[in-house]
Amino acid sequence: MNAPKPSLCSTALALLAAALCAIGGACTGAGKSPDSAPSTSKPATAAKALDEARPGESAPPAAQPSQTAGAPASGPALLDTLPRADSELPPAPEGTQWVEDFHPSGVRKSARTVRRVEDGIVNHGPYLRWFDTGFLAEQGEFLEGERHGLLRTFYETGLRLAETEYQRGVVHGELRRFDPMNQLIQRSHFANGVREGLEELWWDAEHPRARTNWRNDLPHGEWVQWHFEGPASESGSYVDGARVGEWRYRSESDVLLRVENYAAGRLHGLYQEYDEQGAPVREGRYENGLAHGEQLEFHPGGAQLKSRIEYAGGRPNGRALTWYADGAPESEGQMLDGRREGRWTYWNSDGSLHTRLSGVYRAGERVGD
Questions:
Q1: How far apart are CA 284 and CA 258, in angstroms?
Q2: HSE of 223 in the Cβ direction (CA atoms, 13 Å)?
Q3: Of 65, 177, 363, 366, which one's alpha carbon is 20 to 30 angstroms from that of 46?
């Protein structure tokens, strides 16, 4: 019996990758940032106007596996509150000057402030980038050539795509992502480029998607994912990236589908599997990721055993019994390292002896009567 593959929550990793991709300006729709890097000198009027246009968001309630708390409400970011490509640039911070690039159409593509250093120039101060439609794509700052402070990226509609806090070129602080309807769908926390603490994901404003915890960029602590509507789809705990303790999986209709137990990231202890109606399908135990001891399998509906086989080291080793769906015996014998060994007896469904299959086996091959 092979150990089932745990369905690790790739949701959080996928959303995070998409957010960082968009923030870095390398994804379709976000455009490409030609000078990749923010700064500490605050942009003048453009940044202030954008701050005033973003209502604050209240923290969401702590969502437990059985709860369905939605995301905090997000106010709209209107197109007319953001600097367009044809907007007049504010004065450059002292000691810097604006450098501009343009799309082939002639629309301003980016504007950044730079300052001279010993070996050339570096981005230092406000940075703005626009789509070729003239709408703002990105707004942030650089400090001596490195992103620093709050970086905002936008959809072409003018609504927020992501807001990320940087410190000296690495993500440090909060990262937030929004869907095209301006609903908060991700909130993560970073320390010096490493994901730390609570991370929350939402399907939309009313439906939580995941609530996870991180330490040193590894899952650590409670881990819960939800169906779009209904109960938690899976719940359990991690320690330094490894699953531990009991994990449970439920269907959208709140039927328990599977119970797994882990130690140091491997299946260890009781394993139970159920069908969509809650009837048992399989039951057994694992040791260090391998099936060990008595393993049971049930006929559809769960009322009748299909097989009872002893395992050791992840393979059948010991007594093996099977039954027909009506409970009549089908076979009985011994297994050795996954193959039939010694005398085996088989019965037809009417209870008569199956003479062709019954007999003595060696290394899985019938060698005599």
A1: 12
A2: 27
A3: 177
- Specify the amino acid at residue 149: G
* pLDDT at res. 68: 43
Determine the Cα angle at 313 with ends 308 and 319, to 5°.
30
What is the per-residue pLDDT across 310-348, written as a single tens digit (0 to 9) for each? 999 999 999 999 999 999 999 999 999 999 999 999 999
Buried b (16+ CB within 10 A) or exposed e, 44-60: eebbeebeeeeeeeeeb
- C-alpha 312/C-alpha 233 separation (Å) is 31
**Helical residues (DSSP H) of the chain, grouped into ranges:** 10-24, 45-52
Residue 74 confidence (pLDDT):
53
Q: Which tokens sit at 81?
A: 């509150």
Buried b vs exposed e over 228-245: b needs ≥16 C-beta within 10 Å? eeebbbbbbbbbeeebbe
Of 76, 73, 86, the residue nearest 46 (C-alpha): 86
Tokens, residue 59: 């923290």
What is each CA distance from 84 to 87, 111, 129, in whole angstroms? 5, 11, 9
- State residue 12 phi and psi, 5-degree precision: -60, -45
- 228: DSSP letter: S
The radius of gyration of the chain from alpha carbons, rounded to an integer in Å, stands at 30
Residue with tokens 């119970």: 259
Query: pLDDT confidence of 82, banded at 50, 70, 90?
Result: confident
